[in-house]
Amino acid sequence: MKLRFWGVRGSFAMSGKDFLRYGGNTTCLELVTEAGERLVIDLGTGATELAKSLMSGPLGKGVGELNILLSHTHLDHIQGLPFFTPFFIQGNKLNIYGADPAGTSLERTLQNQLAPHYSPLEGLENLAAEVKIESFQPGEKLTLGPFKIATGAVPHATMWTTAFRIEAEGKIVTFLSDVEYPDPETPDAGAVALALGADLLIHDSMHADEEYGMRKGWGHSPVAAGVIIAEAALVKRLALFHHSPDATDATIDGMVARAQARTKVPLFAAAEGDYLEI
Amino acid sequence: MEITFWGVRGSYPVPGPMTVRYGGQTSCVEVRSKDGGCLILDAGTGLRALGQKLARESGGAAGAYHVLLSHVHWDHIQGLPFFEPAYIPGTTIAVYALLTAADELQHVIGGITRHEFFPVPLEAAPAQIQYNEVEPGVRMFIGEFQILPIALNHPFGAVGYRIDAGNTSVAYVSDTAPFTDVLHKQHFLRGLEPLSDDDRATLLQIRADLVNALAKCDTVIYDTHFLPDEYRKFPHYGHSTPDQALEVCAEANVRRLILFHHAPSHGDDVMDLISASYKEKGAALGIDVITSAEGMSLRVGTT
């Protein structure tokens, strides 16, 4: 299984020379099996770049099908949706799976995103592709082609988001972004269960540890929280993720170096770029 | 006056190596009068950096801000929840926009921070946010600025603004389609639809009113999202080309045209070509054409 980060930035897309190495697009990830089957997580602005790469395949010809998981619907995780080209090609089938943490159904929420005030698309029904939107309850297991997915709710300020444990071809990737544990010093049992033995844990690391005190309650983790989960869950590798819009390339370099100094778990900061072998 | 571009991109923010020089953030322009009065045109993603600067300048003290919105498509409003002064108690933010539907502005604009989209609702922000409806043709006065809202041709409606202060003027004309192929109304367009005689008459009227409103304006910032061949493919998207902007500006005797709302696909190299080519086309018409870039500040008028 391969993985590519198309967007690693949290909250806000950042352009400019200070954000070139890690990338400024908001959350979007692509998982691909050896056989070429795909799974996408979240549709932040990174999805606009992913869309370009998909155009040379079946989705560019209107004969493709794609499964998309949404961790939640805060804007930085869906703002690429109205610009995701596979939606505009008739014949494509796009299936979106997500929970309803805000008390509004996932379909209603996405419909609101495309409401006439906000978008010239004026509603999901105007997307040319066949779009299926399915809500699930966290805790449910999903099987999407070769991907076996366990889901779980994790706390995110005034709401919760969905974390995913994704298994395919004997490899495990756990996605735990947009999470802030009530006590980041103690490994959260639910998070550890989702990450147990993962080949790669992708974890919210928005705040440098020394800044976390000022930003407690904002719904995001200090770097240390991901390290603690990674150690408790015996993961093979940790990717720091959901970088702050204020974190330049140099800032992130420093966060990685400080985090690596405190743990034996190999870690790196997620960056836009090439496919990673899991 | 002085204008500063905080976001020049259309549709969505575009990070990465292709947008380092012209910028990747979406619509936001700061207008300053010589006495320091400030207007903010559109609240796209460029508003975040502007908010940081304003908060720094005020030393974190409360201020009063005026934000004129062209319309409420995402790329023109999504910076609002990231505007630092909104989190400074005592601050007032007056938002001006066109009412395009039966819903109130505070529901439409405030709705971008509903629970499922954003963690903190704007209405719970420490600043007081007031919403004001604008009406094309009806002048407004904010400090020393005299402001004329102008109807534009864009899906679900948009307004431009001509701003006069201290014997000079700047206008913001974004987003708009030209006035030839499509009359944008409040419904989804899959492609071109036949124009009725009434539609043609309406388009001519909108164009005449725009030319009239821009008469002898010093500097006009105009939606020039498309190159001509791109426009021909997507005439129903609600955006113009630099050629169409030049035509309007020439007719209105505008001194300077600023290309704005760059397409996400136009990287820095393409923008260099657009910039050079339209500088020349503008010169032939006696119009100084400048391509906006994030961070660019321009003086308008002599004071």
Give your account of this protein's structure.
- The complex is a heterodimer of chains A (278) and B (303).
- Chain A has a single domain, classed as 4-Layer Sandwich (Metallo-beta-lactamase, Chain A), CATH 3.60.15.10.
- Chain A has 6 helices and 14 strands.
- Chain A has helices spanning 46-54, 106-113, 189-195, 212-215, 223-232, 249-261, and strands at 2-7, 28-32, 38-41, 65-70, 93-98, 130-135, 141-144, 147-156, 159-168, 171-176, 200-204, 238-241, 267-269, 276-277.
- In chain A, the strands form 2 sheets. A 7-stranded mixed beta sheet of chain A has the order 6-5-4-3-2-1-14. A 7-stranded mixed beta sheet of chain A has the order 7-8-9-10-11-12-13.
- In chain A, β10 (171-176), α3 (189-195) and β11 form a beta-alpha-beta unit.
- The longest helix of chain A is centred in the C-terminal third of the chain and has 13 residues, at 249-261.
- Chain A is globular, with a radius of gyration of 18 Å.
- In chain B, the strands form 2 sheets. A 7-stranded mixed beta sheet of chain B has the order 6-5-4-3-2-1-14. A 7-stranded mixed beta sheet of chain B has the order 7-8-9-10-11-12-13.
- Chain B is α/β, with parallel strands linked by helices and 303 residues long.
- Chain B is built from 7 helices and 14 strands.
- Chains A and B meet through α2 of A and loops of B.
Secondary-structure map:
The complex is a heterodimer of chains A (278) and B (303).
Chain A (H helix, E strand, L loop, with lengths): L1 E6 L20 E5 L5 E4 L4 H9 L10 E6 L22 E6 L7 H8 L16 E6 L5 E4 L2 E10 L2 E10 L2 E6 L12 H7 L4 E5 L7 H4 L7 H10 L5 E4 L7 H13 L5 E3 L6 E2 L1
Parallel strand pairs in A: 3-4, 4-5, 5-6, 10-11, 11-12, 12-13
Antiparallel strand pairs in A: 1-2, 1-14, 2-3, 7-8, 8-9, 9-10
Chain B lengths: L1 E6 L20 E5 L5 E4 L5 H11 L6 E5 L5 H4 L14 E7 L6 H6 L17 E7 L5 E3 L2 E7 L7 E7 L2 E6 L23 H17 L5 E5 L4 H6 L8 H10 L4 E5 L7 H17 L3 E4 L5 E3 L4
